[in-house]
Automatic annotation (TrEMBL):
HTH lysR-type domain residues: 1-58
Keyword terms of this UniProt record: DNA-binding, Transcription, Transcription regulation
InterPro entries tied to this protein: LysR_HTH_N, LysR_subst-bd, WH-like_DNA-bd_sf, WH_DNA-bd_sf
Identification of the protein by name: Transcriptional regulator
Record's keyword annotation contains Transcription regulation: yes
Flavoprotein in keyword set: no
Family label: Belongs to the LysR transcriptional regulatory family.
Pfam family, one: HTH_1
Entry GO MF terms: DNA-binding transcription factor activity; transcription cis-regulatory region binding
Amino acid sequence: MEMKWIKTFIVTAKYENFRKTAEELFLTQPAVTKHIKRLEESLNIELFERIGNKVVLTPAGHRFLGYAKEMVAKYEEGMEDFESWKQGYNRKLTIATAPQIASSFLPSLLRSFMDENPDIEVIINILKSYDVGGEISKGRADIGLTRSHPIQTNINSKIIYEEPVILVGPSECTKRSSLNEETILQKYRLLTHNHPEYWDDLLHEVQRYYPTVRTMVVNQVEVTKRFIEEGLGASYLPRTMVAEELKNNKLTEINSEKIIPPKSSTYLLTKIETEEVIKFIKFVKRPYLGFSNIHS
């Protein structure tokens, strides 16, 4: 019995159609038919009933489907573990993280952690901030890093970092020193909702002082920054999100006057504290890394 026969069987059971199975697996229809026939011969029982161009699972096929999925899952898990072993890893740490974090401080943090722990294979899963908690809750990741407080009650949540949020505008603002908070918010659209936590309250505060401000919803930080660079607007963003652009004069920080910007929190989420998770938490606790808000 070959694994490719079992995989073909699972896909065929999903579509109940040899042509669709062939398209998904990039096989010919005769190859699909051959795989199913060989599997049935190996098991000495029919798995499908042929009805014209369609195939339907027999009672034996229904019974075998659960076993087939388990076999494929175990096989793929084993091959992943073996491949990790070949690369010198003997432990694994899966981190689910929001894109805002993955594109800011996480790369340098991971580089130091991985240099110190070369035997730990780190897997990064990029998700929306609101989805990170669910990934931890369901046990599909060991650590979550997110900008929003999780709603799940079966996981642990710790604030590991707080940073200021600042108003940023296009680089052209640098050349016009007269552009302050008021003129920026009158001249440019305010690009909103690129952060999962603070925008509702912040927007209400902005509109209280500047009721005629024009807004545009842009729900991704990277797109927001690009829009600002092109002069399409201004926005309030966590400082680490724009540090590189400020340094390279692609964006300009505008001093706040009436608006008191919020702080942006980074949450570390866990469910089961494995040895690898504990190592990571101890690592980010180190004072020189700047994550001084984490609690034991």
